[in-house]
Each structure stands twice: as C-alpha cells, then as structure tokens.
Design brief:
The protein is mainly α. It is built from ten helices and four strands, in the order ααααααββββαααα. It has helices at 2-8, 14-38, 50-70, 77-94, 107-125, 130-144, 173-176, 199-217, 231-238, 240-259; strands at residues 150-152, 155-157, 160-163, 167-170. It has a two-stranded antiparallel ribbon. The protein has a two-stranded antiparallel sheet with strand order 3-4. A hairpin with a 2-residue loop joins β1 (150-152) and β2 (155-157). The radius of gyration is 19 Å and the shape is globular.
C-alpha cells in the first residue's frame, strides 16, 4: 500500500480526483446550458426536464462529498475555507456585471463555510468512528433535505424536517421571513440566486465525506482507488476551484462571440 500511495502522489486517492474532475466538467456543462437559456435566449428543452435536475443534484452531491473527503488531507481547513468564501463573495459582486442574476450563497460560499466549520469542530467530529459518522451524517442529510419552501397543488407550503411517509415536522413560516437565514435554506418565495447550495442539507453530505476521508487516508480503500488512471481528468479534479471561478467568464465570452 505504501508503494501505491507514493506512486499516486503523497497518498492522494487518484480515483477521487478523477470523480471530482468529472463532476466539475458536468457542472460546467450545466452552467453552459443555463447561460444559453437565460442569458442568450436559446431554447434548451432538456433544461426543464425533472430528470435533469436529479442528475444535476447527483453530480453536485458527488462534488460536495469529495470536497469533504479531501479536508482530511489539509493542514489548515479554516484558512482554505476563508479563501474559498472570499472568492465566492467576489463572484457575488462580479456576476451582476455579466448577467441579470446574482449568486447569494453558491457552491463556493457553501464550501468555504463548510471548511471553516469542519476546521473549528474537527476534534468534536472525530469523537465518532468513521462509519458511525457517515451513517449519522447521511441520516441528517435525509432528515433536512426538504426544509425549503415548496408549492403543493399550487399552495406555498413550508418545508419540514423528517422522512416522507414516516414523519414530518413542518417549520413555522416566520422562519422563512426572517431574511438572513437563506444560507440555511430558509428563505421566502421572492429569494433568487443563480447558484444556490444552502447549508441544509448539503453540509451533512460534506461531513459524511470528511468521515469517508478517514477511511481513504488510512489506506483502507481497495488498491484500485489510489493510483491515477486518467491523468488529465485527475488534473482537472485538482484545480476545480479555479475552473469554477473562470469557466463562467470564459463561457460568456465564447457565447458572446458566437451569438453577437
């Protein structure tokens, strides 16, 4: 195992870099279709299919989970988180110059806060064994995945904590009207963000990934996972933050040259 890890680059898990690279490529494709539809007025029928939203959330979830995993390889997650959140805030202020929308709490804001919280609470998180932590985090993810407002038969309904078909604890409407709780997923019907990943439920998926990182870093994954199999895809996975920051301006420039 030691030889395998040395070949994969200081104990890195090659397959995780490759999956993260694939996930960020999917995110770029999604944003490209978003730009074509909402900025350049091109009809993209697939963008409104419900199955496409499910696919989007799956790839976003993979990205968040692996981001939690790689926190185990960092010596200063608080610093990384602050830098990530700062870049997210820069995107918030810059985006309105390119589009009519803005990013209020996008993936970079989310990852930044998640890294900071993990860094602050790592000793507390580590009190749980890895598999128990994964199970508890996944359970909390499921319990909080429906906290946002939703329309049921055309009626605006508050979200809930619980499991559909078993129990549902609905949250009071007052919580959604506070205004400053949108990072948690609690916002009114007028809230809008071009990119939105609230702490509930996504933070628990991030934490599940951090527990998985204990297993990965400890060399307890199958040997196949550690070497790099697709080098260019792994390289993409190691520079996801810069790809995320730069891909929208690049897409905007390319589409502007094509359509204008």
């Amino acid at each position: 195992m030691e030889n395998t890890q040395k070949k994969s680059g200081a104990g890195r898990v090659g397959i995780l870099d490759e999956i993260r690279g694939f996930a960020i490529i999917c995110m770029v494709v999604y944003h490209a279709m978003y730009d074509l539809k909402y900025i350049f007025g091109l009809d993209v029928p697939v963008f409104f299919d419900s199955w496409f939203d499910v696919i989007r959330d799956i790839f976003a979830g993979m990205f968040i989970f692996i981001s939690g995993t790689v926190c185990r390889y960092s010596s200063n997650n608080i610093k990384r988180g602050a830098q990530c959140f700062l870049i997210g805030m820069m995107m918030t202020f810059i985006m309105p110059f390119f589009t009519s929308g803005t990013i209020m709490f996008g993936i970079l804001h989310f990852l930044g806060i998640s890294m900071i919280l993990f860094g602050l609470g790592q000793k507390l998180f580590d009190l749980l064994p890895s598999w128990v932590g994964i199970a508890a985090s996944v359970l909390l993810f499921v319990l909080t995945m429906n906290v946002q407002l939703t329309y049921v038969s055309g009626i605006l309904t508050t979200g809930y904590i619980g499991i559909p078909g078993l129990f549902q604890l609905h949250l009071p409407m007052q919580a959604y009207n506070v205004g400053v709780l949108f990072p948690l997923g609690l916002h009114d019907a007028y809230f809008a963000s071009s990119d939105y990943f609230p702490m509930l439920p996504w933070f628990f998926l991030f934490i599940a990934g951090s527990y998985f990182g204990i297993i990965a870093k400890g060399g307890r994954l199958p040997k196949f996972c550690y070497p790099t199999h697709i080098r260019w895809l792994a390289t993409v996975g190691r520079y996801t933050i810069w790809i995320y920051v730069l891909h929208q301006p690049v897409l905007y420039l390319i589409f502007s040259l094509i359509f204008h």
